[in-house]
Amino acid sequence: MQYPINEIFYTLQGEASFVGQPSVFIRLQGCNVGCAFCDTKHTWELDTANQVKTIQVIEKTGDRLGWAYFSLEEILAEIARYPACRHIVFTGGEPAMYDLRELISILEDKGYSTQIETSGTEILRVSEKTWVTLSPKIDMPGNKTILAENVARANEIKMPVGKIQDIEKLKRLLQQHAVTNKLIWLQPLSCKENPTKLCIEAALANNWRLSAQVHKYINIR
Ligand SMILES: C[S@@+](CC[C@H](N)C(=O)[O-])C[C@H]1O[C@@H](n2cnc3c(N)ncnc32)[C@H](O)[C@@H]1O
Ligand SMILES: Nc1nc2[nH]cc(C(=O)O)c2c(=O)[nH]1
Ligand code: SF4
Ligand SMILES: [Mg+2]
């Protein structure tokens, strides 16, 4: 099995429940949604134009606009460069576009915990133990729907918030899926009009949590 990889890097998880956790991030290429606010547009804009042919090209250039197919063994070799790491985060792009079960099963056998960051618009192919962070994309281009089974499966829901209407959308989603006892995070969008204050107020009013993308404040990847 070959996986289209945009980047693999070792850093501290900056969002939601695992914040501060040393993690290898496996960023898969491509996205089926295409949000205007996306902070990783390099994974889905200019897709085919920037395809690089070999892993060596990426290694040489460090070209984050490019991507390459990695075999399972090549991904494991990248992870092995960080021997202290015990937690692997699949993100993108949209990692749920790919079947991650074989890779995750090997990682679990090696003692790693796994997490997926997903919009919830694709059927998840992860393991029962994978921590699922669902970040709803409502009214996004292409009008992709969030699958009910993914809402049920999610270990936490992390809502990207730019304006008050996003809070209302989240409330409707929670009502529609009868969500009562999940961890709910509000994540302010990194944009000019900083919506952090709005998120703090809504967190206090609803007993939700704030996910402030710590990595962007402490200037790490
Ligand atoms: C880049 S996405 C990749 C995974 C998946 N496609 C998703 O949206 O969950 C990872 C996380 O970043 C969030 N995100 C994207 N752009 C953001 C921005 N400008 N500010 C804050 N969070 C953002 C997403 O909502 C998601 O929780
Ligand atoms: N430090 C750090 N934490 C993250 N949590 C989720 C991320 C993502 O891009 O999915 C991310 C990221 O890009 N960097
Ligand atoms: S779904 Fe995720 S990766 Fe795709 S455009 Fe939106 S934030 Fe970016
Ligand atoms: Mg990010």
Description:
By secondary structure, the protein is α/β, with parallel strands linked by helices. It has one domain (2-160): Aldolase class I (TIM Barrel, Alpha-Beta Barrel). The protein is 27% helix and 23% strand. Strands 3-1-2-4-5-6-7-8-9 form a nine-stranded mixed sheet. Helix 3 links the parallel strand 4 (87-91) and strand 5 (113-118). The mean pLDDT is 91. The site of S-adenosylmethionine (SAM) has 18 residues, from strand 5 and strand 7.
Distance between the termini: 28 Å
Shape: globular
* Residues in β-strands, percent: 15-25%
Ligands present: S-adenosylmethionine, ligand 2KA, iron/sulfur cluster, magnesium ion
Order of helices and strands: EEHEHEHEEHEHEHEH
- How would you state the average pLDDT, rounded? 91
Number of domains: 1
Low-confidence stretches: none
What is the CATH domain class?
A: Alpha Beta
